Amino acid sequence: MAFQVSPGVNTSEIDLTGAVVAAATSTGGFAGRFRWGPIEEVTLVTDEDQLVKQFQKPDDNNHEHFFTAANFLGYTNALNLVRAANTTSSNAAAPLNAAANTAAYANLQVRTSEHYYTSFDPEQGGAEGGGAQNYVNDGPFMAKWAGSLGNSLKVSICPGDRPEATLTGTVAWTVATGAIAGTGTLFDIELRVGDAVSIAGETGYHIVTAITSNVACVMFSTDSTDNANVSAGAAVTRRKRSAFSTSSTFLKGTVAVAADAATVTGTGTLFDSQLVVGDTITINGESKRVKTITSNVAIVTSENFLITATAQTYTREWEYKGAFAEGPPTTSAYATDKQMSLDEIHVAVVDEDGDWSGSIGEVLEAHANLSVASGAKDTQGEDVFYKNYVNKTSRYIWWLNHPSIKGFSGAVQDLAGNGTLFTPAATGDATLRGWGATADAGGAQTADEFANPSQPLTLSLQGGSDGTAPSDADLIRGYDYLKSAEDVDVSLIMCGSHSSTVIRHVIGNIAESRKDCVAFFSPEKADVVGVTSSSTATDNVVDARNTVNQNTSYAVMDSGWKRGFDKHNDKFRYMPLNGDIAGLCARTDTDRDPFFSPAGFTRGQIKGVVNLPYNPKKAERDKLYQSQVNPVVSFPGEGTLLFGDKTQLTKPSAFDRINVRRLFILLEKAIANAARFQLFEFNDEFTRAQFVSMVEPFLRDIQGRGGIQDFLVVCDDSNNTPEVVDSNRFQGDIFIKPSRAINFIQLNFVAVRSGVEFSEVVGAV
């Protein structure tokens, strides 16, 4: 209170309304093998749909781990998941040059987004996998995460729609060499390799194969009837070549193709004037890429057609056009404002083999109207530079690199080496703006166009591998990402089908270290599945418990596995039960409170059980319970139940029960969080009273809900002695009488003679 010189009234506020807020006790934690997703990074998963979306469906190699997580999510909605993987797992990639397929991308593994940017992104100095990242040798695409699923991915790029235009100047053409000599021409600005041009007086059109200077270029004829040179003075026109915008037009003539063949013959067709190598054609619903144009009535495709087709009309189109309602890519407003053109591309990420969607060729992602201009923004100011946009938004691919700023630097082939998709401009070509260049006009590069190819570019990813199963060391490293209570909120940790080595680490180095969570584990599959003798299975389970050999209240063991249905693969599988047992605890938190037992007919019902391979009887349950193993039992007409609530603590104690251990985790976590606000305050009567006034209402609430029978909070001079105060410590002692769950019911039925009053015998028996 401020000092007052003259009489007056001064007011002040003292806040004694601090309260203890209940702490979360239902969040799960698990580390295991999955087919997709970041490696050694904690991901919060809220339901099975998200689990599948981020980590993909189970397979024969990982289903035990997948269903540990999925079964837990069947009871609650919060699981901190870590994907563990061996170093032998690798990302699929798509080098552009066939010769670099195996050499450039061997055993690449991107673990996290941060790992990509620091180790793989060429613009950030990343050097893993390809060394100095070269567009031609190393290629533009890599699967987002390691795994064989990446091999089902294909990426197709549709370039900007170049308009038809009458070119500057006149030309002369020599048929034998394909050389064009220009007068007053601007070949190096108005043309690019792959463009289709027509020359006045010629019946067909021609494809530019090289640009030597502004007055000289080379092209090949698409019309086999051309046999005469063109004299100087002919006009030349660049034809519109957009596989996107003109593809719906049916082409002239009819075609025939044999089953399992790549040669297409035509009747009345104009293959050499209506197609270009690299075009995709569709015949009777099958789409293939044109590899060779033999004549106006014969072509060869890069893949065989599956069926026999005759007298079928055919169309020319970008096969993924239908996924883009935006129309063809052209020039962005961003580029137009900077006096540049043709910077846009469409990008389709495709499920080539159907491993993702179940449908071969389905477009997984359609990225429309991206710009190859560095720094490009859309009208809302969002970054649409193609590389940044794809890397930020795609669930499936990383875009590694782009052509050099001076244009493409070598011939680009498909992965099988089946012909040149387009022939790039020479290295150092200053007439076209390369991908990744700015859109600002002027400078050394005076052209107003970006160096897009004249037809779509489609590449398949390959080389992805699931690798060998994660070792114990890999799994332990994954679980260690759950070790810090300050970084990750975890209350229920599942051990899946992991070895005793991993289980001991999870219990001793995580659960007991954090002291705010409980670890759940099951015996090994071989202990109970396929064991014909129930007595033998019981002994196996007890031996498994003794192998783990952890005397602790921070661990819970169940008796086995269940047989459940895998809807993702339409088959039945065996699954460890510890995901379900942890889920029962989470569900109990929702239905009642953590300090209620998760076992029994009321709260212990386990979901998704087709049958139990090991269903212990009463004598076997007695043996299990004596060894701190909680039986899971199927009762006829009653379902499958958790029929025990013991921790792994061997000595008689209140903490040998799950509900008591979880009660104290709740209390300790909540009160400790609240007590943080006493840090750096004075250790005086006011602070102590404030602490007591905060804690006692919380404990009375827990008492009212049945969690504790009685409590006492001591925080005064008796435990905050001068020695404690001088050591900068603050001490509060909280005494708890926990409520106990019933494990045994004794019913005594007493027969009484007629004429005897019940009051005479009550208490006498």
Key phrases:
alpha+beta; 37 strands; single chain; seven-stranded mixed beta sheet; 765 residues; Elongation Factor Tu (Ef-tu), domain 3; Rossmann fold; elongated; eight-stranded antiparallel beta sheet
Write the layout of secondary structure elements.
Elements: E1 28-32, E2 42-45, H1 48-55, H2 63-73, E3 79-83, E4 93-94, H3 101-104, H4 113-119, H5 135-138, E5 141-143, E6 153-158, E7 165-166, E8 170-174, E9 179-183, H6 187-190, E10 196-199, E11 206-213, E12 216-221, E13 230-234, E14 236-238, E15 254-257, E16 261-267, H7 271-274, E17 280-283, E18 286-295, E19 298-305, E20 309-312, E21 314-316, H8 333-337, E22 344-351, E23 362-371, H9 386-393, E24 397-399, E25 412-413, E26 420-422, E27 457-460, H10 472-479, E28 492-494, H11 500-514, E29 518-521, H12 525-528, H13 534-548, E30 555-558, E31 561-566, E32 571-576, H14 578-591, H15 600-603, H16 618-626, E33 629-630, E34 632-635, E35 639-642, H17 658-675, H18 685-704, E36 708-714, H19 722-726, E37 733-738, H20 758-761
Parallel strand pairs: 1-3, 1-28, 28-29, 29-30, 30-33
Antiparallel strand pairs: 2-3, 4-5, 5-24, 6-22, 6-27, 7-14, 8-9, 8-13, 9-12, 10-11, 10-14, 11-12, 15-16, 15-20, 16-19, 17-18, 17-21, 18-19, 22-23, 25-26, 31-32, 34-35, 36-37
Helix pairs in contact: 2-14, 10-11, 13-16, 17-18
